[in-house]
Design brief:
The chain has 188 residues and is mainly α. It has a single domain, classed as Four Helix Bundle (Hemerythrin (Met), subunit A) (Up-down Bundle), CATH 1.20.120. Helix 1 runs parallel beside helix 3, helix 2 packs antiparallel against helix 5 and helix 5 packs antiparallel against helix 6. The longest helix is centred in the C-terminal third of the chain and has 33 residues. It starts with 8 loop residues before the first helix and ends with a helix.
Length: 188
Amino acid sequence: MSQTVWLNIPNLITLGRIFAVPVLVWLVLIQKFDLAFWLFILAGISDGLDGYLAKKMNAYTRIGAFLDPIADKFMLVSIFVILGVQGFLPIWLVIMVVFRDVGIVVGASLLEVVTHKLEMAPNFSSKINTTVQIILAAFVLGIQGLEVVHMDVFVDVLVYGTALTTMWSGAIYLYQWGNTIAQANGDG
């Protein structure tokens, strides 16, 4: 990683995404779904842009490696909770998504405490899960904001797809962390 100043353009974009979360939640609460949809899309674009700029500008920082997934989790957990509370997503799915994300934070913290080998690099299953979660949230916001009708089947498919990828990703993390801890303790 480059030893650049931590407050660079990619990290500022990431911080902007974090600060957009309360606005996004507020827009859903006041039922401005069209604006919420476009802000969510803009946040998604900014997620790709900050990574691209970090690479292009050789502006990777350790804080950026932590901030980016935190921004993603903050955005997704917040939007899932508010869409669940508003009745647009099933509560069981919201609980599953939040439980997995809290589990990842606790598990990563425990892994660091026990092994001092925490690397901020999501695994493939997590990337797929995050993508499916983003698509579901954008789809629900878009249906509400753009007043699209007759999309219930697509939402149901995305809900169950999100549930499956959430369970799959959580299981992969548990397996990987268990192996890392076993190796650190000389058991593997």
